[in-house]
TrEMBL record:
<protein>
    <submittedName>
        <fullName>Extracellular mutant</fullName>
    </submittedName>
</protein>
<dbReference type="InterPro" id="IPR029756">
    <property type="entry name" value="MTH1187/YkoF-like"/>
</dbReference>
<dbReference type="Pfam" id="PF01910">
    <property type="entry name" value="Thiamine_BP"/>
</dbReference>
<dbReference type="InterPro" id="IPR002767">
    <property type="entry name" value="Thiamine_BP"/>
</dbReference>
<comment type="similarity">
    <text>Belongs to the UPF0045 family.</text>
</comment>
<feature type="region of interest" description="Disordered">
    <location>
        <begin position="77"/>
        <end position="100"/>
    </location>
</feature>
<dbReference type="InterPro" id="IPR051614">
    <property type="entry name" value="UPF0045_domain"/>
</dbReference>
<feature type="domain" description="Thiamine-binding protein">
    <location>
        <begin position="4"/>
        <end position="96"/>
    </location>
</feature>
<dbReference type="GO" id="GO:0005829">
    <property type="term" value="C:cytosol"/>
</dbReference>
Length: 100
């Protein structure tokens, strides 16, 4: 399973507030039932099969254009571990275990 951190920034919008775009992108993600996702204050974490994660990212990148943005900057980090099952929760728990 792949874990991706995605940040999408619409550029050239009428306002400095981006929360409307973020809300729209969360609605887009809700339609991608093959992946799970978590909104954070700075990005969105997406987990699932790599091909489905890419499909979700492509849809997210397109969403601001559909709302009138003329330029969109998208940053993606992917952790695709194949030697054993992995998840955001498992990664966090591993660190917590080491802090004990």
């Amino acid at each position: 399973m792949a874990i991706a951190e995605v940040t999408i920034i619409p550029i050239g919008t009428a306002t400095t507030s981006l929360s409307g775009y973020v809300a729209q992108m969360q609605q887009v993600l809700a339609k991608h039932t093959e992946v799970s996702y978590q909104l954070t204050s700075m990005s969105t974490i997406i987990e699932g099969p790599l091909d489905q994660v890419w499909k979700a990212i492509a849809a997210l990148h397109e969403a601001p254009f559909l709302s009138g943005a003329q330029r969109v900057s998208t940053s993606v980090k992917i952790d695709d571990r194949r030697d054993k099952a992995s998840s955001s929760a498992q990664k966090l728990q591993s660190v917590k275990d080491k802090l004990k």
